[in-house]
Amino acid sequence: MSTVLHSRGSILGAFDHFRDELDDFHDRRERLIKSSRDVTNLSKKVIFLIHRSLTESNNQSDDGETSLRAVSRAKHKLKEIQDLFAAMREEVAGDRFWRYQRNVSPGLQEYIEALSFAHYLECQTLISYAEVQRSLSDAGGVPYFPLPLDDYLLGLSDLTGELMRYAISSISRRGGRSKANEVCRFVRGCKADFEGLTPYVRELRKKQQVTTQSLEKIEDVAYAIAVRSSEYDLPAELLDDIVERTVSGAGFRTGEDERDRGRRGGRRSGEDEDGDYD
Amino acid sequence: MDPQNLDYINQLLDKDVELREKIKDQVTDFDKKTRTLTGLLNRIHSTPPNQVPELIATVTPVLDSCKETTAALAELIPPNQFWRWKDMWSVSLRNAVFAAVLVEYLRSGGLLPLPQAAEALGIKDEWQDRLTLSAEDYLHALISMVNELSRLAVNSVTMGDYEQPLKISTFVKDLFAGFALLNLKNDTLRRRYDSLKYDIKKIEEVVYDVSLRKLAPAQSEQALA
């Protein structure tokens, strides 16, 4: 058969071709890993930005307003991340996406965490698969790449940790206790929803444990508040006033104080990269 | 989570689970075939050169039967999802390619190139995004062949075939020179490539033993033959 390679020259020719192919693969992989890292960094910044905006000391504005302000700032930043994904579009076109999915997935999950956090503050719901996919599509609604279900679920699963921080750091604020209870209910719902999906998604089991820990932290705080406030037979409004006066009277800058609390309560074991709040 | 979204997710999951099961069935089948292939090809170590064509004749039908499996897999895989599922069958596929390239070496002493290896397993160009023979899988198969040939060099001497080691030596060195052209990263391919030198050393030793005792025809004679 003439197609069979007999000479060293023809064999080396075939390998030349493989080299180009493998180089192309490795180079693209490196580029995507870099992009994914950029996405991760920006996403973390969005999350910190939201936390910061939520705990900024301005006691005048009401709670909904604070949330919305945080959301509008976050959205601006999220757009930057979406642009990064748009730029990756060519690299992961066609059958390439699944070849590099593992390299893109860390950034994607972090993005979903940030996006779903902003979404929660805006709508008090869990962002749907379709909505996440839509955020990763061009103006004509054509997706940059298919959203893997695993990444969607794992990204959402990380949201519970952020909500825990949010709940705990808002507890000393006006209306913070009812907020904490609300978040607590929501996280409980998430945990229940994810439980049924755990057998299908590999890493979800570990994340579920973290969710459970976060939930317990919120529950513990809610418990402490319930027990202590029972000592005073006062309406919630009045309690808010007392707490507020005490906090400002002690000369703390509220923001700092709350962040500190968030940190003390907020550390999750095995998640060091998230520990740095500033 | 709102029920509609949860429903949708469950639908997606069910679809994936179903697909995975179907692929798994095909892979089990594929695996059986490739095990038969390696079993048959193991006989090269005890088959005298004049009976090798008969041995190849028993291998060919099994190799051809792999075409059904690749066709069934290509049918199952959704467009653009080749890389999502390929890990499920890559071991079997590499073994099948190993059989194909080894058979070609035994038949003609040459290297079966990638496109022809894919063709031998019935993999069609138009399946590109669903089922294809990747360079990585093909290269893994070549390394398996070299591993096998180093054994063959030893065993053919035992069977009294003193020419085979010399042919193997030339062929394997050509392949090794080819692998040296690649910029391999620190992955399994790299590790297996690193192991090639032991195969080469083994083959060299056989060649040395054979030529030292003047058992093989002189190099110049062989070149003429």
From TrEMBL, chain A:
Gene Ontology, cellular component aspect: cytoplasm; nucleus
Coarse class of the protein's main subcellular location: cytoplasm
Alphabetical list of SUPFAM superfamilies matching this protein: Translin
Protein localization: Cytoplasm; Nucleus
Region (Disordered): 250-278
Superkingdom: Eukaryota
Ranges annotated as biased composition (Basic and acidic residues): 254-263
UniProt record similarity statement: Belongs to the translin family.
Stated name of the protein: Translin
UniProt source species: Fomitopsis schrenkii (Brown rot fungus)
UniProtKB/TrEMBL annotation, chain B:
Keyword DNA-binding: yes
One example of a Gene Ontology biological process annotation: RNA metabolic process
InterPro entries the UniProt entry points to: Translin, Translin_C, Translin_fam, Translin_N, Translin_sf
One GO MF term attached to the UniProt entry: single-stranded DNA binding
Localization (cell): Cytoplasm; Nucleus
GO cellular component terms, semicolon-separated: cytoplasm; nucleus
Broad class of where this protein is predominantly found: cytoplasm
Domain of life, per lineage: Eukaryota
UniProt keyword annotations, A-Z: Cytoplasm, DNA-binding, Nucleus, RNA-binding
Pfam families: Translin
Family statement: Belongs to the translin family.
Protein name as annotated: Translin
